[in-house]
Amino acid sequence: MKPTKDSFYLAELLDFLEDVLAWVKDRQGRYCWVNRTFLIKFALDHPGADGLVSAEKILGKTDYDLSPAFIADQFRLDDEQVLSGHRIINRIERVGEFEGMTAWNITNKIPVFDAKGAIIGTAGITRALSHDGLPGGTVSGFEPALAYMRDHYHRGITNEQLASISKMSLRAFERQFLASFHLTPQKYLRKLRLRIASRALVYTNEALSEVALNCGFADQSHFTREFRRQFARTPREYREHYKLSAGVPVTKSAARKQ
Q1: What φ, ψ does residue 68 adopt, rounded to 5°?
Q2: What are phi and psi of 132, to 5 degrees?
């Protein structure tokens, strides 16, 4: 899949957004186009002899060529969801920093269609969040709720709390959140916790019970049940599968660092 002339000119506008990583992939997950910020970020994470990265080092590659296996697997799960016609809208997630995991992003991914309406790939953008809050206007009305989930995911959070923070009635909050994110508030929160837990399993030596509690699950059994539903592996199997392939040092505890 190659960007058309018109779409390429439009995509070039994303080169002027210094804090936004943008990309387009084909159905096989191969990168067809990335913006300038993507190249700069890749160069920072994968320093070469000259500190430079050309598009040729990324285009045609997949996430399995560019990222640890467990992260690439998660990206591929996203791609499969998007290729089936779904969108990933305004998802907050931790990315990038392996020790401490202090980097928070907000991510959107959508299908790419050809002239006949067939899905031929995926496109996405992600941008960093500051610790002071979410960028205004990104998900209008839900910034306080998302910030609260980001900072308190390891605690019990109710829809009533999130609605109050958002200055909405409970019914309006639940309805509008579902319309904006295509997930209920609690499913959104659960997916956030599971993605954080997956990083803790790979990059820390925390006991499974600690990971469960630190990521907001009632107990290890609850954690295992939800984790298997999301990743088709138990937390223990996930850790054993990805620990050696991650290729980075582990820390004693990282799940709750901000």
Answers
A1: -55, 155
A2: -85, -10
Pairwise CA distance, residues 18 & 127, whole Å:
9
Q: How far is CA 242 from CA 7, 24, 67, 73, 247, in A?
A: 38, 26, 12, 10, 9
Instruction: At 196, list the tokens.
Output: 């954080």
Q: Give the domains, in start order, of the chain with CATH numbers.
A: 12-129 (3.30.450.20)
Separation of CA 222 from chain center: 22
> Higher-confidence residue: 103 or 131?
103
**DSSP symbol at 135:** P
| Beta pairing, strands 119-129 & 104-113 | antiparallel
Residue type, 91: R
**Residue located via tokens 């990521």:** 215
Q: What distances in angstroms separate CA 42 from CA 39, 52, 192, 249, one per listed residue?
A: 5, 9, 24, 20
Distance, in Å, from the CA atom of 39 to the CA atom of 34, rounded to the nearest integer, reads 7
pTM above 0.70, yes or no: no
Asked if residue 207 has pLDDT above 80, the reply is yes
- Residue 165 in contact with residue 144, Cβ under 8 Å? yes
Single-letter amino acid, residue 256: R
For residues 247 and 77, give the distance between their C-alpha atoms in angstroms, rounded to a whole number. Answer: 22
Average pLDDT, the chain: 82
Can you tell me whether residue 43 is helix, strand or coil?
Answer: helix
| Residue whose entry in the numeric block shows the structure tokens 């959140």 | 177
Classified as helix, coil or strand, 136 is coil
pLDDT interval class at 98 (50, 70, 90): very low
Return d(Cα 168, Cα 170) in angstroms, integer.
6
